[in-house]
Amino acid sequence: MLIRNVRGIWAFAVVTALAGCQAPRDFAASTPSEAVRAAQTVEFYAAQSVSQPGLRPAALPGGTVYLPDRPVLTRVDLTDAAALHDQQGRFFVGLRFTREGAQKLNELSLRHVGKPLALVLDGELVAAPRIAEPLSQGVLSFSVDSAATAEEVAARIRGG
Which tens digits make up the pLDDT trace of 60-74? Predict the structure, then answer.
């Protein structure tokens, strides 16, 4: 999974939402479906692929990443989370950050290209895609295996 600067994908999602007669969601007013448990904590970590002193392991089906003690971004740094798809049928979770969050994301991504950015919801490692390029637009996306997974992760991130 690679994180991408997703201005085009985000625009596609907005057009798709409007075409489906749905108003764009306001992050603060969003509520997940009752079937999806909202995450109490949403944290992003500048992860490493190799074990180093002071880092703790976190496992995903594709392997293990190593996390520092403190997150670099949290839910406070987000303004929206949405399930997205592209014309090739791939599914993504798209995230939009606050001005301050976008600045943190940009600074992190400049130093962390090629390394994983771990997303942890309620202490559970959900994804650890590699940063493919500097993320200067305040948005990013990561791929997931299905539309249902994209919807669930986005809803959990939006919280309540």
Answer: 888 899 999 999 999
DSSP 8-state class, residue 40: S
The three-state secondary structure class of 9 is: helix
Integer Cα distance of 58 and 67 in angstroms: 7
Which amino acid, residue 127? Answer: A
Residues of the chain with pLDDT under 50: 5-34
Phi and psi of 99, rounded to 5°? -60, -45
Q: Where are the domains of the chain?
A: 2-16+38-158
- What is the topology classification, in CATH, of domain 2-16+38-158? Gyrase A; domain 2 (3.30.1360)
Can you spell out the DSSP letters for 83-140?
A: EEE-TTS-EEEEEEE-HHHHHHHHHHHHHHTTSBEEEEETTEEEE-PEE-S---SSEE
